[in-house]
Amino acid sequence: MDIRPLRTEDLPAVLDLTIDVFRPFYEDSFRPVVGDPVFMNRHGDWKEDYRRHVNAVHDPEHGRFAAVACVKGQVAGYIGWIIQEAQRHGEVDILAVAAEHRRLGAGRALVEHAVAHMRTAGTAVVSVGTGGDDFHASARALYESLGFTPFPNVHYTKAL
Question: What whole-number distance in Å separates Cα of residue 1 and Cα of residue 61?
Answer without folding.
Answer: 27
